[in-house]
Specification:
CATH superfamily of chain A: Cytochrome c oxidase-like, subunit I domain
Oligomer: heterodimer
CATH topology of chain A: Cytochrome C Oxidase, Chain A
Largest sheet of chain B: 5 strands, mixed
Structural class of chain B: alpha+beta
Strand content of chain A: under 5%
Distance between the termini of chain B: 94 Å
Helix content of chain A: 55-70%
Helix content of chain B: 40-55%
Number of helices of chain B: 12
CATH class of the largest domain in chain B: Mainly Beta
Structural class of chain A: mainly alpha
Distance between the termini of chain A: 18 Å
CATH topology of the largest domain in chain B: Immunoglobulin-like
Radius of gyration of chain A: 25 Å
CATH architecture of chain A: Up-down Bundle
Radius of gyration of chain B: 39 Å
Number of domains of chain A: 1
CATH architecture of the largest domain in chain B: Sandwich
Order of helices and strands of chain B: HHHHEEEEEEEHHEEHHHEHEHEHE
Strand order of the largest sheet of chain A: 1-2
Shape of chain B: elongated
Number of helices of chain A: 17
Strand order of the largest sheet of chain B: 3-9-8-5-6
Largest interface: A-B, 128 and 120 residues
CATH class of chain A: Mainly Alpha
Amino acid sequence: MAEAKQLTADQIIEEYGYDDHFHEHHDEDKYQSSFITHYIFSQDHKMIAKQFLITGMFWAFVGGLMSLIFRLQLGFPEADLAWLRPFMGKWIILNDAGIGTLSPEFYYALVTMHGTILVFFVLTAGLSGTFSNLLIPLQIGARDMASPLLNMLSYWFFFLAGVIMFLSLFLSTGPFAGGWVAYPPLSALPQASSGSGAGMTMWLVSLVFFVVSVLLGGINYITTVLNLRTKGLGMWRLPLTIWAFFVTAVLGLLSFPVLVSGFLLLMFDRSLGTSFYLSEIFIGGQALDHVGGSPILYQHLFWFLGHPEVYIIILPAMGIVSEVLSVHARKPIFGYKAMVFSILAIGILSFIVWAHHMFMSGVNPFLANFFILFTLIIAVPSAVKVFNWIATIYGGKMRFNSASLYAIGFVSMFISGGLTGIFLGNAAIDIQMHDTYFVVAHFHIVMGVAAFFGMFAGIYHWYPKLYGRFMNETLGKIHFWGTLIGAYVIFWPMHYIGIAGVPRRYYSFDYFDTFAQFSDLNAFITVGAILTFAFQLVFVINFFMSIWRGRKQETRNPWGATTLEWTTPIDRIHGNWPHKIPTVQRWAYDYYKDDREYVSQITPLEEGEKTDGLH
Amino acid sequence: MTVLLIILCLILLGVVIVQIGRVTELSDRIRGEREAQKSSDFWNSRLLVVFMVLFLGATFWSAYKYKNFMLGYGPHTAASEHGPSLDNIFLVTLIATGIVFVLTQILLFWYAYKYRDQEGRGRTLFMPHDNRLELIWTAVPAIVMAFLVLQGINVWNEVMADVDEDEEYVHIEATGFQFGWALRYPGPDGKLGSRNYKRITGTNPLGQVWEDQANLDDFQPSEIVLPKGKKVRVRITARDVLHNFNLPHFRMKMDAVPGMPTHIVFTPSMTTEEYRQKLRDYEEYQEPYDPEDPEGPKKWEAFDYELACAELCGKGHFSMRKIVRIVEEDEYEAWLAEQQSYYFQTVRNSDEDPFKGQILDAEVKQRSEEFEAAVTMALTSENEADRVLELDYIYFATGTAELEENSKYQLSDLANFLTENEEIRVELSGHTDNTGDPAFNRELSLKRAQAVKNYLADQGVKQDRLIARGYGDIKPKDTNDSEEGRANNRRTELKIL
């Protein structure tokens, strides 16, 4: 396997690397080593990645806890929740007998916050923010991001957004409760819902800061990928993770500003008396003056972001999975170019499918035809990716550890969740399925599970790059198996409930005979949710415990991977490499191309050797 | 206390799990990375296959268990004419995606097991790409999608098409508000009157513009009743925030948007009674509807189509229920005939009534018909009492014998009656209550009867057919002790001689 003349990474970099004289010029100014500049206002991309990750984990915990509370209401509506009163105060209503029930207003606040927190703070910031920051400079051979300052600001705007959102939970009128999509007029009128007062204002402010964070991050990621790739790293040699993060950042930059414009108009309607979204409303005993606006305008502006957003969430996970599967199967990712084209196709198509969220909104049905067509077209590159992942496993020598197990789990979840998208994209079926639990099942399986699995795979796989240690493997596997089974237990039954017509965002199903038939199934789902949440605690304990007690990383490249991040020294330094930066001589997938188990991207070609997928 | 114990147990469990993790990590370190990895590969590869079998087994078992909720299957068939085509696409998609689902899940987990790292495996297959394979598995999904899209687009455009100009359909309106539905039917004129949200009050919840006479016969029932087999167009509006008019049994829903009316069109194909009879065949619908009343109606008997809201509209979103009853056409017509117009029931002659003090065409017509019926009865009846008619709609200015403008309608009915029946002679009599001077009352009542007689004479009725009498208060019809009674006593009567 190892040849006599195989050089170490240091030797190869010394001989073939590129000398940018980084450490002579940059060592002291950007990275002063006080506690504050090292751990708090750090401009080092690896520290910022950790900040995004840990903040994301905090929000995942909060958002997950919220789901447990509202699932208690759905699974066990008769249960006495008085014990929650110390935490939730007046939002648990006590009847004469002292039995506590969750107030419907706060139920809706929890559901809204759960969605907002998980989609934005966890799956966008926590996923993209963490891995784009960690991997882009390392995998392209850069010292850091193009602008470490903007990068730092990107985290702190996210933090600020989080603080504001967190504070809104404690308002006496309640946090915003109109659904994470925040459709007006409900979100525009405090008379319509108490959370649409101060709660909505804070929600809007928080998310505007959040978008600033995304844009600052995105600009950095794009610029860095385009401009700071090391010598020899043409775009067609980039690992799929980088392609995914790059296209994700482009999607973000193009779509988030439209969301802000939608929010801006909403702020105007709320505070300046404009009527962008409001017309002919009678509420609270009064006929409002607003005339001429349309709630549908908001929906267009929202979903113009909303749809690319879900691809912003899934693409990084897909990139991570491609990488993890390839490394642990000891095999090139199957169809690298097809995978890149699929990412590009998904990226482009994601901009022209948004109104499939609006089939039943009252838009002219003629419009739907285009969106049906493009939505079902976007299923094709997604399917191609699934086939390519399976083909990657085929003929490989799979090593099973927490990372690769999660990568395999991702593919299973993406198949399940992606296929139900085909039902929903066909508008005729959506007539029946829109706003039912069928939709809830679909998006949870693709986002709430598959994207999370990608994130977990990434965390377990690149944990050594974060902390120079490994996470505990046994705990990782317990986490995996519990979550895999638990996630299917929670979300699979929701398909049946949805097909039966049960609408989403219902506090209680008891008012309708048609919907009241699933109390057993709802209880089952709730129990599944509680158990699955408990398994996440295993992960959290493992994560923090391993920072100090994890098995130490002894070799630079424990996974035997080909990509650049594994050529740095084990102890992380600013500027990533101690002297020269590595140059790239081949693509990222030379596994068993000849007698060598793997060939790092930095290894120069031998006499007569071809690369980039050619024999 | 229990909570504390539970928390302690959970913490203990956590500690146990962490210790298991650390111990196994130690033992892995002892036996070496190679051995540890081999063991992991051995167990996890097999667990993946076991999972696959259990998972696919569970999906099929659960699908079978819940088959009665599948669209178009068993009890869950559609109650509308377009419903089956929708259910059909669902089924086709289910089959197509089901095949892909099973195939890919099996390949995924099976290959993970088969191509696990094993002793003596040697190298992996260096197979970076295969363009022909890529082409195949790009083209096949594309073709399947195209097929699904074509069928789907077809059904979509058909189902969502609005009614034609010259088509016959029942037009009704539903308005969503926090938190319920207000229903409006167009009444006999078949037209829904116009609305203005600025006119909404407690007694005018839909802001109907009463000046638009199309509104006058509209009625607001508490449940939706529709005839089987006739096309229905539902005009959907919202009063405050977004709602959604959702009829799951009919495979129809549409957002209700404030400021922009939307609509759905469908044709009910099963009456409530027919649907109940269909449900009767299924075990689960033979359970008692109320578990605490086992002798009471069964679930199939208590079944009703329901209208629900399907767009989050605030804290009461889950409670916006209305019953929908589909009946045979004759029952529908009978129900329609029973309905009272909202305007005439609630608004007429109140302060909100723009026609207060005026007589409406509809009322004129109704009064003529009433009079017609009364005189026909009078002419054909043997009963003396039937030959005395009270002329309710002849009005005098208070304390005088001056006829008010609005009296002309009944007077003209009376004139027509007399002209058409030339042999009839009538006595016109005036009556008062017992307040004031009896002589004055007698005088006034006579003058009033004479006023009517003179009017009729002016219309061409021969005077010798008309006798005018003033009875004052000597022939009361009701008690004089209450205001209502006195009002009843102040009247003009017609007696056919």
